Amino acid sequence: MALYSAAAAVLEGLERGDGGIKTLVYNSRFPHVRQLYALVSETLRYSSVLEKLLAGAALLRAEKKLPLPLAKVLVYDLLFGKGLKCGGRWKALARRHRARLEAELARLKVQQKVSRNEDLLAPVQAMSPGACQVPRYVRVNTLKTCVDNAIDFFKRQGYSYLGKAASVEELRDLSGKKFLLDLHLPELLVFPPETDFHDNFLYTSGHIILQDKASCLPAFLLSPAAGSYVIDACAAPGNKTSHLAAILKNKGQIFAFDVDTKRLATMNTMLMRAGVTSFQLAQQDFLTVDPGDPKYSKVTYILLDPSCSGSGMVNRVPREEAAPSAERLQALAGFQRKVLSHALSFPALQRLVYSTCSLYREENEDVVQAVLQERGSAFRLVNAFPSWPCRGLSAFSGAESCLRASPADTLTHGFFVAVLERHGEGTAAPSSLPAAAEENPQHGEGTEPRAAPKTRKRKKQRVKE
Fold first, then answer.
1. Which residues of 219-242 are buried (b: 16+ CB within 10 A; e: fewer)?
2. Is 357 a catalytic residue?
3. Are 205 and 198 in contact (CB under 8 A)?
4. Beta-bridge mates of residue 230
5. Is the pTM of this model over 0.90?
6. 284: alpha, beta or left, given left = phi > 0 and alpha = psi -120 to 50?
7. Please, which residues bridge with residue 139 across strands?
8. Residue in 216, 234, 308, 357 annotated catalytic
9. Per-residue pLDDT of the chain (465 residues; tens, 9 = 90+)
10. Closest CA to 197 of 187, 215, 209
11. Is 439 helix (H, G, I), strand (E, B) or coil?
């Protein structure tokens, strides 16, 4: 059963936008990663077929306690895989419906006039456009090493460093064992799309974080000063939290919230591996956090990356994506407006970054506009990262201050970022760009080779209930 539960958990993580398949598989702690990766990949490949079979056989109506991701995994292995070699009570449940599922599969083949299971799949060209375009981005964890050391380490592993990229096209042309320093973010290295570092020492020791470029933008643009108090409102799986800690140089305090116990436990492990010390995890819905609590009286920065449709996420395994319904988008946008408004109510707040991995205006510009109108003149949009090529949609005056990202234009996952700052007497003038972006020096050229990064032991942080 552990295999099917782990596979279902990975599918749920993909749906939430927690990361790519490989990252979620390797973070699952399942001992047989190749077996798990294969099962998840094939279940995704057959996802649309499985949904049709489940609907036709009315399996979820008959078994109301069976979650959809687990149902997909079980039915895939039952009909297309190895025939449910394990699974306990769920295995028995799936086998009770075997005859009905097999009959539905036969009906589907007749309907589509095919004889092989593979022929039920949609053409590859129709699935996940741009999935192969996104490079492998590697954020150097400056809590444990520096960019020069990481570059030198990769050189000694046989990679060829080409210097700092001058354009997005240079990133698109990467191949083989070549890599570049990103043209926008100073601690981001860029490798060809299929480069795998999950078994690399730098990854397993926490010296590098495998994080999409667009996902690095929120912490980078929040740019809290060392010693600041920061809230990461919807924190798991923790990549952005570790990025914040690196920017803070482990000085100050990060309050990180998430409602899911398992995600927080995984996040705690990840943060410890990354050398993060200045954080407190709490299993709590951010909407229930009291802005008037003295504990948060010094919080001047908030990173808010709430649940969204995940429509911008690019999977490295092609699959069809169903567009969210109008009702689902409306519900998500309502929650996002509520949580953004709540975040802006913290009394000492000076800067907030709102981000989603969604492509939809309803979850992005419309949310920002509604909350800014609700808040009057207390907060204003900052013209974030003027050199970034893709701006917000023209939904309202000033929306161009927001950032967007996409596989086609920026070679990243689809993403949206807005930077809001308190506006009024006694507040500092907002900056349009973190200082680190302006400096953005060349790395790894003309420097002496350095020793491989050394690991450092950290005490574990307790997850608060």
1. bbbbbbeeebbbbbbbbbbbbbbb
2. yes
3. no
4. 254, 301
5. no
6. beta
7. 188, 209
8. 357
9. 588 889 999 998 888 767 677 778 878 888 887 788 888 988 988 888 999 999 988 888 888 888 999 999 999 988 988 777 665 777 788 888 888 898 999 989 888 888 888 888 765 433 444 444 799 999 999 999 999 999 999 999 999 999 999 999 999 999 999 999 999 999 999 999 889 898 899 999 999 999 999 999 999 999 999 999 999 999 988 999 999 999 999 999 999 999 988 788 889 999 999 999 999 999 999 999 999 999 999 999 999 999 998 888 875 444 444 567 888 899 999 999 999 999 999 999 999 999 999 999 999 999 999 999 999 899 999 998 999 999 999 999 999 999 999 998 999 999 999 999 998 755 544 444 454 444 443 344 333 333 445 444 444 444 444
10. 209
11. helix
Helix H or strand E encompassing 79: helix 68-79
CA atoms of 428 and 294, how far apart (whole Å): 23
Handedness of CA 217, 218, 221, 226 (dihedral sign): negative
What the block records as the tokens of 393 is 């949609």
Distance CA 189, CA 202 (A): 13
d(C-alpha 185, C-alpha 193), whole Å: 18
Q: How far apart are the C-alpha atoms of 207 and 142, rounded to whole Å?
A: 8
Q: Which residue has the tokens 């990060």?
A: 254
Closest by CA to 338, choosing from 294, 302, 297, 370, is: 370
Query: Three-class SS of residue 139?
Result: strand
Q: Which two tokens stand for residue 201?
A: 């020492």
Q: How far apart are CA 97 and CA 107, in angstroms?
A: 15
Start-to-end C-alpha separation, the chain: 28
Give me the helix-helix angle, 68-79 and 33-45, nearest 10°: 90
**Neighbouring C-beta atoms of residue 456, cutoff 10 Å:** 10
Residue linked to tokens 């929306």? 399
Q: Which two tokens stand for residue 211?
A: 């994080």
Quick one: which H or E segment has residue 258?
strand 253-258
**CB count in 10 Å sphere of residue 428:** 9
Closest CA to 444 of 149, 139, 178, 207: 149
Angle at 219 between CA 246 and CA 139, to 5 degrees: 55
